Amino acid sequence: MPIVLKNQSEMQAMLKSCKISADALNVAEEVIRPGITTKAIDKAIHDYIVRCGAKPSFLGLYGFPASACISVNDVVIHGIPGSYRLQEGDIVSVDVGAYCDGFHGDNAYTFAVGKISAENEQLLRETQAALYKAIEQAVAGNRIGDISHAVEAHVSQFGYGIVRKFVGHGVGRALHEDPEVPNFGKAGHGPRLAEGMTIAIEPMITLKGDGVKTLPDGWTTKTASGKAAAHFEHTIAITSNGPQILTKRG
Ligand code: MG
Q1: Distance 69 CA to ligand 1 centre (A)
Q2: What's the CA-to-centroid distance between 83 and ligand 1, angstroms?
Q3: How far is the CA of 177 from the centre of ligand 1 (A)?
Q4: How many A from CA of 67 to the centre of ligand 1?
Q5: Ligand 1 centre and the CA of 107: distance in Å?
Q6: 10-residue mean pLDDT series, the chain (250 residues)
Q7: How far apart are CA 143 and CA 194, in angstroms?
Q8: Could you write out the DSSP letters of every residue in the chain?
Q9: Gap from CA of 196 to ligand 1 centroid (Å)
Q10: What is the distance in A from the centroid of ligand 1 to the CA of 96?
Q11: Other Cβ atoms closer than 10 A to 193
Q12: How far away, in angstroms, is 225 Cα from ligand 1 center?
């Protein structure tokens, strides 16, 4: 599929769905605490998005049964909200999108539940740092590989694993558009970035190893090593003024 460029008014519309997506993470952060179930977090997110007059992008997408993917500790992505109660020391990744006025937003954040281990604290910090290094490369004239390489170069310093099976993506009228945005790759390679492109950059980084396994539920994707994983994501636009983070949290 060709890469879909967005004009100014489409970009404005996307800002709205992206803001709701970002605010939904704030809602998650407000309710995350030891003892809450992941299902209750999902409900808070769902209710917020619907109150905004938007639709949760993930609900029913390819059959996904909830509004947010909520992934705890060694679950990398696509955790199904359920009866698990968060415990002090857990890390919990919340991935959520909202759809309104014809466009999707998409973002994710890994939260600490109370006090977490030093190694998990560093994993969260450096995965987020990798996301911002990647965003710096999202300028017209660069290539997707420049974004990919920025993530890989940053996290490799710490010996972390990079999930290769899942990648970032274009986002717009469809939640998943071209191009793919891998978290590994060669600078100077891949599709050329142009003004009007809107992409979700989303490093999925593990304490150890690149391998993942998906559980029989068809969704829950864990690290093969059993070690923790972090996931940070923004939807960004490539503009004449450089990268613009559309899912910036207020
Ligand atoms: Mg995404």
Answers
A1: 11
A2: 24
A3: 10
A4: 13
A5: 6
A6: 93 97 98 98 98 98 97 98 98 98 98 98 98 98 98 98 98 97 98 98 98 98 98 98 97
A7: 9
A8: -PPPP--HHHHHHHHHHHHHHHHHHHHHHHH--TT-BHHHHHHHHHHHHHHTT-EETTTTGGG--SSEEEEETTEEE-PPP-SPBP-TT-EEEEEEEEEETTEEEEEEEEEE-SS--HHHHHHHHHHHHHHHHHHHT--TTSBHHHHHHHHHHHHHTTT-EE--SS-EEE-SSSSSEEEEE-SS--TT-SSBP-TT-EEEE--EEESS-S-EEE-TTS--EEETT---EEE-BEEEEEETTEEEETT---
A9: 18
A10: 8
A11: 22
A12: 23
The residues near 224 (Cβ < 8 Å, ≥ 6 apart) are 209, 211, 212, 213
With tokens 């605490």, the residue in question is 33
Residues 6 or more apart in contact with residue 33 via CB below 8 angstroms: 86, 113, 114
pLDDT at site 68: 98
